[in-house]
Amino acid sequence: MTGPAPHRLDLTGVRDKAGLLRSCAEQLGFPDEFGHNWDALDDCLRDLSWWGEPGADGWTVEVTGWGELRRRAPELTRTLGEIFADAGTYWRERGVPLTVTLG
User: Fold this and answer.
1) Whole-model pTM over 0.90
2) How many CA atoms lie within 13 A of 79 on its CB side?
3) How confident is the model at residue 1 (pLDDT cuts 50, 70, 90)?
4) What average pLDDT does the structure give for the chain?
5) Residue 92: in which H helix or E strand, if any?
6) How many C-alpha atoms does 1 have within 13 Å on its Cβ side?
7) Is 13 left (phi over 0), alpha (psi -120 to 50) or beta?
């Protein structure tokens, strides 16, 4: 991979939507004005300007704790997965990949 290091999101121990959104905000470095709701998460993933310029391979997010969260709160992973997929499509259409790996 060429460019900036992957961004990491550890969802281990997350139990609810508030904890999930807080983890995203803190670990992915969202701006202070992040609204801590699904729409705000979607907006932040479509404006990654605070991450600086993407590398030649775009941006990468490595998620850990996904399986644990999926077992505990499948509705959260379903919604988060949809938001990640939509953001990936948004960036791909602009020629800048956003790759999210779930582990």
Assistant:
1) yes
2) 12
3) very low
4) 94
5) helix 74-92
6) 15
7) left
First-to-final CA distance of the chain: 18
- Domain assignment present for 2: no
Please give the residue range of the domain that contains residue 36.
Answer: 8-102
Structural domains of the chain, count? 1
Please indicate, yes or no, if residue 90 is contained in any of the structural domains: yes
Token output for 90: 């948004």
Q: pLDDT at position 3, please?
A: 58
Q: Which of 6, 87, 98 is nearest to 42 (CA)?
A: 87
pLDDT at residue 80 tops 80: yes
| Beta-strand runs (E) in the chain | 7-10, 59-64, 98-102
What is the domain-level CATH number for residue 27?
Answer: 3.30.370.10
pLDDT per residue as tens digits for the range 92-103: 999 999 999 999
